[in-house]
Amino acid sequence: MDDHAKPSVLVADDTETNIDILVETLSDKYDIIVAMDGESALEIVKSNPPDLILLDIMMPGIDGYYVCRRIKADNKTRDILYYCNG
After folding, report:
1. Hey, is 54 helix, strand or coil?
2. In the chain, where are the structural domains located?
């Protein structure tokens, strides 16, 4: 990683207010990537793995538990830190 690059955080949540709060709070120190559902979160993780994932449990389509299981099942992404919020 570039010495000047900010760590990346994926915020996966279907509530825009939650996303807005997290982006406002974290964007000075982190590059924020946003996913509005579980499918998008998995696509992002696969193509551009973040350093940390903040994951909502209750989302439309696939839920946060499923997203987490998929991330942990993949050797390339299993070591990404994550926090699940229900």
Report:
1. strand
2. 8-85
Q: For 8-85, which CATH superfamily applies?
A: Response regulator (3.40.50.2300)
- ∠ CA 50-52-53, nearest 5°, is 95
Please state, in angstroms and as integers, the Cα–Cα distance from residue 13 to each residue in 19, 30, 42, 67, following that order: 7, 17, 13, 12
- What is the spatial distance between Cα 46 and Cα 77, in angstroms, rounded to a whole number? 8
**Residue in the structure block whose two tokens are 């000047």:** 4
Query: 35-81, pLDDT tens digit by residue?
Result: 999 999 999 999 999 999 999 999 999 999 999 999 999 999 999 97
pLDDT tens readout for residues 23-39: 999 999 999 999 999 99
